[in-house]
């Protein structure tokens, strides 16, 4: 496989996908067109406007972008595509739409056969085994929480360390993930903003500017430096 | 109805339920026993330990507490109960357990017929129309997101204002609720910690120390002072 699952599309103070530019030139090397999957975006901007945002960035890499919503037959579009990018937004809406349209398995099959895939935030959640470690609000009810399983674990994008000065009684991210582990025997990769997971052939590594926090049942959480294997 | 739906069980720096004590004396006036519903708590502490926490507080009000998990026939226990308290934790786990055991409708029926009910956090979420405005992580897959509808709107407990200094790209609470409104025609009550909703007869008001933030489709969010009607 040839995959990037990124914590976020945009770093604080940065431009859209800018921090990933060199990696994306490598990921999509030799491609002149990819399909953008805009389904995570719950309004405010339309699928077309959201696709235009991706289009703007990829034009600088001489890669044209088609939105999956533009096709009458999205299953066929996935099978004829050269590569994919799923943008962030609300994971419940993204997973519901992919299941409702019967696309999750087709997308997974095409990525597992080697087509390059970029996911950001919600688009990274669907690379995990299931979406049960998303941070998003359950604004719609998906027919299933199951995802593509490009990696043998779950992802928590936008991983956020506890904020000591916050006088608030809501659970920290770490507490939430530890609660997940009481109900599921699945490793969770907490991806801080600035980090991404790289699948290249049979290797899976954590990359980027930040350490990555790993959660497993029966262990204290621990950290991996960029470049570490996640297998 | 005779109901309190509280944002949180515990204020920062305070003790369990302490800030609600006077209200709870009024809510449960004349009762010597209530049933505690501990199902939101995903491990770390058992149902029995969690029930003991509630028991410790209510003993000071001369009210004894039985955990719903103690009964072989929880449906019958709900129908013979005098009042209820559902504690916080993970809303997905709470709603899944209530639906799996077939208890949601029985609980709702008993509260709507006048038995006093206290919900905190996840226990307040289930008083809304559905759980689609919870902050919790979807660690389990409930058979439905539908809840009791004690109030004709949804609740967002632990409502948190944006933190301007946070250099993080995750969505603010307000953004998440606005995304909910793109998919659902349901009013959302953002309950800051220190606030609660009081149903007393045919009145529904917001109470406590904080203003309450209201979200409706097609309107800018607005605020209500304590004592305002939510009808």
UniProtKB/TrEMBL annotation, chains A, B:
Swiss-Prot/TrEMBL keywords: Hydrolase, Protease, Serine protease
Top-level taxon in the UniProt lineage: Bacteria
Taxonomic path: Bacteria, Pseudomonadati, Bacteroidota, Sphingobacteriia, Sphingobacteriales
GO molecular function, one term: serine-type peptidase activity
One GO biological process term: proteolysis
Family recorded in the similarity comment: Belongs to the peptidase S51 family.
Keyword presence, Signal: no
Organism of this sequence: Pedobacter suwonensis
UniProt protein name: Dipeptidase E
Keyword Nucleotide-binding: no
């Amino acid at each position: 496989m040839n995959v990037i699952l990124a914590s976020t599309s945009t770093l604080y103070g940065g431009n859209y996908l800018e921090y990933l530019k060199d990696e994306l030139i490598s990921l999509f090397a030799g491609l002149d067109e990819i399909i953008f999957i805009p389904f995570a975006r719950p309004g405010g901007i339309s699928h077309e406007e959201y696709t235009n945002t991706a289009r703007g960035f990829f034009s600088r890499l001489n890669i044209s972008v088609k939105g999956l919503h533009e096709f009458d037959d999205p299953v066929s579009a996935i099978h004829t595509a050269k590569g994919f990018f799923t943008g962030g937004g609300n994971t419940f809406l993204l997973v519901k739409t992919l299941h409702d349209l019967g696309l999750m398995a087709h997308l997974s099959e095409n990525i597992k056969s080697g087509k390059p895939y970029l996911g950001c935030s919600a688009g990274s959640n669907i690379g995990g085994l299931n979406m049960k470690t998303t941070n998003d609000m359950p604004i719609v009810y998906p027919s299933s929480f199951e995802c593509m399983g490009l990696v043998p674990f779950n992802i928590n994008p936008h991983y956020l360390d506890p904020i000591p000065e916050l006088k608030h009684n809501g659970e920290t991210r770490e507490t939430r993930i530890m609660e997940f582990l009481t109900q599921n025997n699945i490793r969770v990769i907490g991806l801080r903003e600035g980090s991404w997971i790289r699948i290249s052939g049979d290797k899976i590594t954590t990359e980027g500017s930040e350490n990555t926090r790993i959660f497993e049942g029966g262990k204290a959480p621990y950290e991996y430096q960029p470049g570490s294997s996640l297998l």
